[in-house]
Amino acid sequence: MLVPALLLLVGIVFLIIAGDWMVRGAAALARSWGVPALIVGLTIVAFGTSAPELVVGVQSVLKGAGELAAGNVIGSNIANVLLALGLPALIMAIPTNMTGVARNTFVCLFATVLFITLAFIAKFTSNSELIFWQGAILFTGIVLYLIWMFRLSKAGIHDPILDEMTEIEEGEDGLPTKVWVSLVYVIVGILGLVIGGKLIVDNAVLIAGEMGISETIIGLTIVAIGTSLPEIATVVVASYRGHSEVAIGNVLGSNVFNLFAVMGATAMTGPVPVEAELLTFDVWVMLVSSMALLVFVLRRQPIGRFTGIVFVIGYILYMLALVTRVM
Hints:
Blueprint: H1 2-32, H2 37-48, H3 51-62, H4 67-82, H5 86-91, H6 101-125, E1 129-130, H7 132-154, H8 160-165, H9 179-211, H10 215-240, H11 246-269, E2 272-273, H12 276-298, H13 305-326
Antiparallel strand pairs: 1-2
Helix pairs in contact: 1-2, 1-9, 1-10, 2-7, 3-4, 3-9, 3-11, 4-10, 4-11, 4-12, 4-13, 6-11, 6-12, 7-11, 9-10, 10-11
């Protein structure tokens, strides 16, 4: 039990570091070839930041443990709102009145409702499995979303998610400046993602088997928190440095990509089982957390320390509910 748990944590570390290396290397290569920052942001950076969840999802389906994929995405989205916004709010209030936040919050809520709708359709039509056509609908969502973002940028409209994706400059933020170094970053990053994904999926299955619980629970807890660590770390550090405004864009972007890109690509790879417990409890926690965020955005009210405490306590209670589920 101890060895699989340690190997799973090693896999999470591999995913986080390798995903970052791949994005930086690919972005630097694109810049050296004259690709505009906007295109780099809407392709390499956009999909690269969701690489941990995507790798886990695809590898779990290929291994026949698709329950892990659904649990990972739902658990990550819950952690992103309650932890990645709750923790930095304890340090500094997070503003919600920036241009584009309301627009992206509605997109996030729409993606959440669409996923839940497709999951319930799957319950009655395909043995509670998201299959190719449902994955194609979700993935179409991310394609349309990125096209929309491109047009907004061309029209000169500011967007917090787009700003987050296009802020990396060559030579800054750790981007390599030499082509051969960029290639090394990409190759090592891809290999690390494959290795990390395999370590996570293989050992998550082992842990679930030894504990007598489903892969879904492991996906909702350990794996979800692990793949959400980049977002959590980014916003906490940013808040500590007095830049809490990056938190909203980071969280909304991650949640939209998890539901559209990650679940879409995963379901197109193979059937993704959605356990009954997810539909009776977890998806509603995900929806309620998104709606709670929308309330603050519509009121243009900052997420302060008290709300941060409520969010963090809410996440702790959610974890306790999962524990009682398997006892």
